[in-house]
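Our platform keeps sequence and structure together, in a single record for each protein. Such a record has a labelled line for the sequence and another for the backbone structure tokens. Nothing more is needed to write down the fold, since each code stands for a local backbone conformation. For reference, a complete record is included directly beneath this paragraph:
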Amino acid sequence: MNLNLSIQKQITLIILLVSFLWFEKNIFYSIDEHQIPPEKNYPEQIKILPSGTKYLVNPSHITSDINVLSKTKQKEIHALFNPNFETIESANNWLNDNDIIFGVEQKNESKAYPQKIIQHHYVVNDNINKKPITLTYSPATKTIVLFSPKIDNQILEFNATLKNYNKVLIIKDTLTESLWTQIDGKAIVGDFSGKTLKAKAVQSMLWKDWKRLHPNTKVLSKNTGFKIMYESTKDEFKFQPNTQPKLIAGVFVDGENKAYSLNHIKKTKIINDEINKEAILIVQDPSIELNEKENINPTAIFKRYVGNGETLTFKIQDNTLIDIQTETIWNFEGKAVEGFYKGKQLKKLANKNTTWSIWKKVFPKTLFC
């Protein structure tokens, strides 16, 4: 009799445990059995927590980088809003020629954002040529992405966070506090879930090279309002020689993406390629250093035609960029300076600079070169 009672109690406990686990999985977290686990990218179906919060990735899968503050000796990370800028002459007083900057150019305006400043803030809310931009940088993964912060005719601003999803930095908009992944600019938690920011072109190069190519550039000022000794800042997340990851330049064309190894670009200097039937050009100015170990990536990416004209094939001859079809001479910013197409401009495509390990996690079906 006692034995039967004991078995009944065990069965009851098992039923209660199974019921609790089912409730936790399907009600509290609102995760269905078909949800893709974090390591396999996120599902495209928007779900809703009991609290009413929309999400693509369940918040329980987003983690915090508490070790970041101990490395940078900061209490918290603050994004920059409407920052101040200075001239080359002024910046030369505290920037060294071999310091890394992130360069942005649109039409007749160019701006340089020193890495030694950005690595303390992760996010810069700014504008160039009177258009809003959001520059993002993850020191831990060396990921650099520039976005247009316009969504549904609204201009958003972003704060930095110490959160990550699959080691990808998470940023947060100030309007709804939705969480966005840095590398693809997609909102994964909050009111904007499923929305994607449009990426823009950005380059990383040495200060000496940027100011030579852009003599009228503006430089992000170290007078940010925060008491940080930027000029003496070191890269606390610098990769060690035995852990050097493969760095890439990632490109998107109409939903298809491809990663180009910086080491391969450094060897070839130029790649004529096609993504999703779109002819593209990946090129490195031979006069500018590309250093995979230091995360210096001056690569530029363009469409290989002008307007509705013919598809061009390019080569580098005597450190000069030339198209084979007309032998027009182009500068490395995609502008024809001599020959048949003189005055024409190739359309620059957005690039996303990161490590191969991060890129393939977010885009598992990516192509690679």
Summary: The first strand starts at residue 47 and ends at 48. The first helix runs from residue 2 to 28. The radius of gyration is 24 Å.
